[in-house]
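User: Just a sanity check before I run the rest of the batch. Below are the structure tokens for the first item. I only need the designed sequence back.
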């Protein structure tokens, strides 16, 4: 049975009746009068938390008081607590607990908007997916050049006409999930004097298949994601694109996500970065105990969009930063335009600055695809340590090996090769490999500890560790490693275990953090 989304309301009129129709929400109400008349309220709330788990969302309709913020210290998590704007005050802003848990005011124009907002964000988990450009059908009347580039993009070049005319539609629909705000983000890029017009049609599921709503937006209206308000039924979202003008259009995937409105991307507190070519990465910062180090985790390949590694990193108690790459099929190895890559570096640097940490109080980490991000950006940031499992560094080689070594498996590498180098030639394969090595070899690595768990018979990047080791040796870097028999996707539990063990060793040795509860027998 899915876990319920647990809400605690403090003060105001009890809003539980509004949520009675939402079976996935558990609503608790706390009367602030208990602060004065019931000294046992702390024990009562502790009993609720112990019996049913922590609250996912806390909504406060009460003036500031030390008693209230002391309660928040017991029950709040970062980003999950909102104070009704009518009660927000300077006292809230300046309180240490409010700052620690990133407590924010809840803004709304009227009661209906407030209730809709609370309903929209009250759901457990996270979800996102996409429809690939390889599933787009080019309109038969378009007579220009057409190039399909896997899951990366569909390229259309030529004369599109003076008026908007259809150029493509997707044979697969997106799914609109009832009772959720659905966020839509189409990837596209334009060369030349071309304008685009996207049409999103909501078609109710069932025998009728009735058209419920049609949304038409030009490319300049899509600088921010489209958000479709909640509806009490499931539906499909069909997508068509029109164009006018002359030039080249690059149509990428169309992303669909469960929205948390202005409260976060995927998770409460989640964020996204997008460059001028509409390429994204997502990130989430958890302040932990605000003590060194900052642990950065790059997500691995995942077709379901969202953050990875939250609970693993949270158990370490230190501040952590999750970074995810939702592009292509399941990620694009965290590389892209100089603007995109600088965006990742800036997010890490700004988080260090927020914590008042130095670069030696930083650990970068990742598994599989995430290992590339950890090693590539780690070489540029001078961290205390880089911890990786199943390292992948030669993306061109990974793409090349799809032909004979692992047929029809992990075509994402081909998408990344073509989107970065333009084709699959041997020259492009080597150029993409060198993108990593030119960065990694020219940086000083002597002050960084490298902890690497790798597969002995890896069929993605067979020589990754053997090629990394001489470079690390030449830089006099300290290296810890563990080899596991098997191919790339074999024995992930053992790799994950060593990944956590390496973390525990470095946290204790370099930062005095003893992870007793997390230590495992090796």
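Assistant: Here's the designed sequence for the first item:
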């Amino acid at each position: 049975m899915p876990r319920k989304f647990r809400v605690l309301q403090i003060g105001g009129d009890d809003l539980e009746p509004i949520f009675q129709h939402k079976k996935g929400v558990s609503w608790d109400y706390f009367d602030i009068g208990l602060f004065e008349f019931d000294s046992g309220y702390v024990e009562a709330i502790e009993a609720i938390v112990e019996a049913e788990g922590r609250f996912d969302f806390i909504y406060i309709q009460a003036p500031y008081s030390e008693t209230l913020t002391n309660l928040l210290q017991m029950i709040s998590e970062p980003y999950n607590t909102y104070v009704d704007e009518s009660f927000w005050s300077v006292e809230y802003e300046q309180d240490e607990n409010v700052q620690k848990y990133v407590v924010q005011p809840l803004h709304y124009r009227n009661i209906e908007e407030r209730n809709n907002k609370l309903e929209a964000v009250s759901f457990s988990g996270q979800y996102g997916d996409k429809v690939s450009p390889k599933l787009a059908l080019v309109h038969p009347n378009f007579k220009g050049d057409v190039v399909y580039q896997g899951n990366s993009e569909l390229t259309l070049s030529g004369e599109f006409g003076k008026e908007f005319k259809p150029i493509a539609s997707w044979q697969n629909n997106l799914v609109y999930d009832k009772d959720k705000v659905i966020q839509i983000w189409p990837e596209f890029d334009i060369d030349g004097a071309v304008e685009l017009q996207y049409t999103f049609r909501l078609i109710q599921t069932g025998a009728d298949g009735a058209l419920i709503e049609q949304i038409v937006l030009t490319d300049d209206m899509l600088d921010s994601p489209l958000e479709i308000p909640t509806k009490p039924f499931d539906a499909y979202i069909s997508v068509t694109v029109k164009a006018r003008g002359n030039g080249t259009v690059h149509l990428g995937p169309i992303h669909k996500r469960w929205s948390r409105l202005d409260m976060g991307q995927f998770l409460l507190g989640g964020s996204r970065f997008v460059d001028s070519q509409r390429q994204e990465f997502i990130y989430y910062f958890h302040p932990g105990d605000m003590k060194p180090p900052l642990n950065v985790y790059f997500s691995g390949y995942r077709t379901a969009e969202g953050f990875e590694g939250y609970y693993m990193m949270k158990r370490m108690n230190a501040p952590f930063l999750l970074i995810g790459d939702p592009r292509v099929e399941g990620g694009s190895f965290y590389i892209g335009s100089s603007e995109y890559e600088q965006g990742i570096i800036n997010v890490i640097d700004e988080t260090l600055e927020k914590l008042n940490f130095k670069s030696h109080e930083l650990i970068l980490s990742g598994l599989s695809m995430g290992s590339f991000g950890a090693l590539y950006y780690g070489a540029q940031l001078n961290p205390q340590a880089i911890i990786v499992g199943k390292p992948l560094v030669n993306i061109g080689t990974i793409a090349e090996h799809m032909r004979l070594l692992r047929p029809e498996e992990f075509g994402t590498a081909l998408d990344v090769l073509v989107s970065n180098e333009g084709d699959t030639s041997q020259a492009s394969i080597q150029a993409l490999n060198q993108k990593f090595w030119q960065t990694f070899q020219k940086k000083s690595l002597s002050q960084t500890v490298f902890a690497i768990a790798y597969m002995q018979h890896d069929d993605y990047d067979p020589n990754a560790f053997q090629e990394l080791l001489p470079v690390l040796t030449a830089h006099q870097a300290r290296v810890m490693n563990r080899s596991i028999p098997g191919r790339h996707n074999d024995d992930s539990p053992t790799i994950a275990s060593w990944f956590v063990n390496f973390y525990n060793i470095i946290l204790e040795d370099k930062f005095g953090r003893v992870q007793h509860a997390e230590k495992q027998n090796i």
